[in-house]
Amino acid sequence: MKIGILGTGMVGQTLGAKLAERGHEVMIGTRDVADTLARMEPNQYGMPPFSAWHAEHPSVRLGTFAEAAQHGETIINATNGTGSINALSIAGETNLSGKILIDASNPLDFSRGMPPTLAVCNTDSIGEQLQRAFPAVKVVKALNTVTAFLMVDPALVNNGDHTLFICGNDGAARTQVNTWLGEWFGWRDVIDLGDITSARGTEMYLPIWLRLWGALGTGMFNVKIVK
Ligand SMILES: NC(=O)c1ccc[n+]([C@@H]2O[C@H](COP(=O)([O-])OP(=O)(O)OC[C@H]3O[C@@H](n4cnc5c(N)ncnc54)[C@H](OP(=O)(O)O)[C@@H]3O)[C@@H](O)[C@H]2O)c1
Questions:
Q1: Which residues line ligand 1 (CB under 6 A)?
Q2: What DSSP designation does 167 have?
Q3: What is the dihedral of CA 97, 104, 67, 48, to 10 degrees?
Q4: What are phi and psi of 74, to 5 degrees?
Q5: How far is CA 142 from the centre of its chain?
Q6: pTM of the predicted model as reported, rounded to 2 decimal places
Q7: Backbone phi, then psi, for 103, in 5-degree steps?
Q8: Which atom of ligand 1 is nearest to the CA of 30?
Q9: Ligand 1: which residue has its CA nearest to atom 23?
Q10: Residue 20's closest CA among 71, 66, 70, 65?
Q11: Chain segment 103-157, per-residue pLDDT in tens
């Protein structure tokens, strides 16, 4: 499948590498291709610059947000949550319309230091903002509650027996994304939370995720819902 990933960070790189490995035609989108390739400093997680990653993954194409959105039959939003509306605006409504957009973003605001605060919560979410701004796009919130390495390989923790949440207004799109999460990455326990307002809950999970990260000293963990 042709997949367009908006975002050059840890999530875009990790998803891009795994999806290309699975045989998909992946294009990653950025604001400015030349600028992104020219960056030489490590990113905020101390990872090598995008150009170093790209040199090791030549089958993954790099383009503008608009080119990646045009390329993808399905789109993944892996941009900074506070910039996601801008990223999709640059990608262009006509390049996105009618397509499923898997939204992995979180509304983290680092402007007041660590741990980050939520830029939106309680009565709204990035997922809802994207759906309102782009009504012809089928936004499905998913993957935002686990670290990037677990997104693509849940078996790295507890043999893959832990829980992921999805939500979105289009039931058929949710079912499709649920199937892809299993086929692409091996997710077995996916709870469908219904419409996109549930993104408030999965995005507001981030403050406790961040505290667990600090307490456990690793991002390689997840929750398992039992009843
Ligand atoms: N890191 C994780 O393990 C993890 C796990 C779960 C969820 N998430 C969420 O996934 C998303 C991506 O995270 P990340 O760590 O890979 O990278 P990130 O640093 O949060 O985001 C990088 C991407 O955001 C774009 N961006 C930043 N500000 C923008 C703006 N004002 N307008 C348009 N685009 C903008 C950048 O564009 P350029 O390419 O042009 O610089 C870049 O492609 C975030 O929302 C994050 O909260 C991350």
A1: 7-12, 30-31, 36, 78-81, 83, 86-87, 104-106, 108, 144, 147-148
A2: B
A3: 180
A4: -130, 145
A5: 7
A6: 0.98
A7: -100, 105
A8: 39
A9: 79
A10: 71
A11: 999 999 999 998 999 999 999 999 999 999 999 999 999 999 999 999 999 999 9
